[in-house]
Amino acid sequence: MSTAAAVILFAAITVYAVFGGADFGAGFWDLVAGGARRGQRPREVIDHSIAPVWEANHVWLIFVFVVLWTCFPQAYASITLTLFVPLTLAALGIVLRGASFAFRKAVIRTRDQRNFGAAFALGSVLVPYCLGAVVGSVASDRVPAGGVAGDPWSSWVNPTSVVCGVLALCTSAYLAACFLVSDAGRLSDDTMVAYFRRRAVAAAVAAGLVAFAGIFVLSNDATYLFDGLKSRGLVFVILSAALGLGALVLLARHARRGARLAAVGAVVSVVAAWGVAQWDYLLPTSLTVADAAAPTGTMGAVFVATGLAAVLIVPAFALLYVLDQKSLLPEEGMPEPTPIRSTHD
Amino acid sequence: MLTDAVASVASVASVANVALAVDPVPWARSQMAFTLAFHIILVPLGVSWSVMALIANYRGIKHRDADAMLLAQRWSKYMAVTFAVGAVTGTVLSFEFGLLWPKFMGQWGAAFGVPFAFEGIFFFTEAVFISIYIFGWRRLKPWTHFWTGIPIAVAGVFGSISVVAANAWMNAPEGVTLDSTGKVVDVDPIGVIFNSAMPLMAAHMVVAAYLVGGFLVASVYATGMLRGRRDRYHRVAFLIAFSVAAIATPVQMGVGDALARWVFIEQPGKFASIELVPETSTDVPEVLFGHLNPDYQVVGGIKIPGLASILSDPGTGTATSIQGLNTIPVADRPTTTEVNVTHLAWDIMVGLGTLLFLLTLWYWASWIFRRDMPRSKWFLRAAASAGVLSVITLEAGWTVSEVGRQPWIVYEKMKVVDAATANTGIWVTFVGVTILYLGLGVTTILVLRMMSRRFRRGDGAGDEEVPYGPSEEPSLSGEEGALLGDEPARPSEEPVG
Question: Under CATH, which architecture does the A2-297 domain have?
């Protein structure tokens, strides 16, 4: 029973890593898009791409928290107790970026847009880094169970947390760039397709380098996780590397849909590798999934809720994304996506 | 004096240490109270504004009412902003449960969390369909688009019921089995969600959402009308919003009364604070304002003889005995400050609630006798202030519920002091969060005002050219809608809503 709950938890984390990640990554590209004039077109594409879906994407984080504190209350309490600082920063970052993004849409003066845009973009970098660092802390045995707080600083300012934070940032940026290539393609904007394709490659290279560096860091700093990655999680590690490379190849060959799928697969594999590697601990190496589990009644309720979510939410999400992909949810005031000339695929 | 530098560095360090060693409990409390107080203002808008927009949308399509259609479009754009702020401040709360109250979550998460598992579904639904509704104006067919708004309204109601169920469980912690060490060993999810406090508390909050949302939105248009914008557009907006509030307010009087009686029976300690009753007695006077001095004696205020007893149980009248604070063991007794805050908040909630009720009576009386809303400027002035007053009422009511439960976080099971984090740096986050939220609040209001000015100024013309600017073409009749803003008021047929 606790295993099933842990699977639900990791599934929710995975979905958040993909949808939330793509959303944060888009914010990262917004941040580095340059001045108001030069960055205008990329920012338009980014806005167009995430505006209808960003709020829904972030509900997954709440779902992750709810499953964590309901099914594994002790783990949630331990994580929040020790990792107070990065979680607080992440919360503030979420406020900053969510509110700013909505505000930016609502104001029309360039100066206002620029200020809100900056807050949105900074938040988009801060949050995935902090959440990645939190994952790194948990995975590297730095969050003790049983109501004792770990070190408030070294628990998240350490090699593994830094690697995980930066990796979260890179995969988000990579994922977002792959999605944006697709979205720019739908707008028939070849310049932007090329623009984001270059960035997808750059982010993929960065993610690869960080992951490579991570091998050395984890072997010293997070031995339980490293052993898990070498054994149980190895297949997922290989899979994620293969899919990551595959996505690049597909991008180069203008197979946008396939590239997007492969990119998603790469990120899913990374999260799966982490989950499998630290099994059967929730907090390596002090709290196992079984020991942290809430009573049966609670688990049953969460399964029912998850079942309902699968029946109600999945179709609703599908509807949202289909409408969005079919450009039935156009950005107000944005130029209509008029086909300039037909492109490949 | 060379050592001064060293000494000052050392003293700075020690000051920092002293400062960092501040007792976290009051700061954790303050931060939770502040962030919740902020979030709770956005809740009514999330729950009821969608309904008002749908009413306008329905009128717009069904009666080809261009004013109503324009209204629905603009409201949906404002909603996009308030919903986003509500979503992010709500997300912060899910961090804070653990960051501020790790021991509470560790011990009770298995029960407290259950309603949230279902709340998650409703929040998802709301987030998905609000996106479709906000962005679907131009490309979806009018009726299809209208129906995509319905799930927002439904999910808003059930979402707030779920959250209140969790809060109600803190007042009536049922459905849990504990072992001898106090650990939760079994949970009955039905018992947790449908705890005895939940039905009335949930009803009270949902009706409050319609009440506050209605008054808030209506107050904006009442202000506009007082400033001479007496066109049909303003009138339709006011009528929809105020009618929603005017339906909710009388209902709330009944729900609130029933809830107060539930508290009288089930939470006598909270009731003693509400009614300022130091010692168990019959023929208890209703004390308006007034307070307890440090010796738990009632000082000041206006006493209405016997009324508290009569209201608590009209069946037995003044003979109704009300349990006093003296029956609570000293260690579990709320402080006099907590009692006074609860009592004052109660007076404010009931007092303002009654005023709002009288205002709606005026409105309905005018409709019954004159077939029109009141013409008096004083009515508009009252309606213009009703928005802020209803928010104060909401905050006061929530204060009664929360402060009245003190010293417990889980009623008679866990105290707030035992639930809080031991993290001594909370005061820092409190300061940070306060600054951020004040900025957020001010910015939200400024952005909404900016949007409203732009809508008024632009009225559709030229907006299309501005990046991010809204387009004001209703899916039915664009030009008509754009022009109606300046039309003189003409009588509308029936009250809508």
Answer: Up-down Bundle (1.20)
Please give the residue of chain A at the shortest CA–CA distance from B116: A66
Upper half-sphere CA count for residue B47 (Cβ side, 13 Å): 29
Residue A72 DSSP symbol: -
CA distance A338 to B4: 72
More confident residue, A55 or B114: B114
CA distance A198 to chain B (A): 26
Alpha helices, H only, chain A: 2-15, 21-31, 40-50, 54-71, 73-82, 84-106, 110-139, 159-186, 190-221, 223-230, 234-252, 256-278, 289-292, 296-325
pLDDT given at position B364: 94
Task: Dihedral sign for Cα B297, B299, B305, B308, please.
Answer: negative
- Measure the CA–CA gap between A203 and A211, rounded to whole angstroms: 12
> If you average pLDDT over residues B118-130, what whole number do you get?
90
In this prediction, residue B188 carries a pLDDT of 92
DSSP-derived secondary structure for B3-17: HHHHHHHHHHHHHHH
For B97, the closest of A51, A69, A297 (CB atoms) is: A69
Q: Cα(A205)–Cα(A210) distance, rounded to whole angstroms?
A: 9
Interchain pair A91, B470: CB under 8 A: no
ipTM: 0.88
Q: Where does the pLDDT of residue B493 fall: very low under 50, low under 70, confident under 90, or very high at 90 and above? A: very low
The backbone region for B487, taken as left when phi is positive above 0, alpha when psi lies in -120 to 50, beta otherwise, is beta
- Measured in angstroms, the CA of A142 and the nearest CA of chain B are apart by 17
Q: What per-residue confidence (pLDDT) applies to B116?
A: 92
Residue A342 structure tokens:
């037909």
Residue B210: per-residue pLDDT: 96
pLDDT in tens, A131-178: 999 999 998 888 888 878 888 888 888 898 999 999 999 999 999 999
With CB atoms and an 8 Å threshold, state whether A298 touches B130. Answer: no
Q: Tell if the CB–CB gap between A103 and B443 is shorter than 8 Å.
A: yes
CB within 8 Å of B28: residues ≥ 6 apart: B100, B101, B420, B421, B426
d(CA B217, CA A116): 26
- Among A175, A58, A67, A93, residue whose Cα is nearest residue B131: A58
CB distance A107 to A117 below 8 Å: no
A106 contacts B106? CB cut-off 8 A: no
Locate the domains of chain B by residue range.
23-267+405-486
The pLDDT tens digits of the residues spanning A99-119 come to 888 888 777 777 788 888 888
Average confidence score pLDDT of chain B: 85
What pLDDT, in 10s, does the model give residues B330-345?
A: 899 999 999 999 999 9
- Kindly report the length of chain A: 345
Q: For residue B47, what is the DSSP state? A: I
CB contact under 8 A, A328 and B139: yes
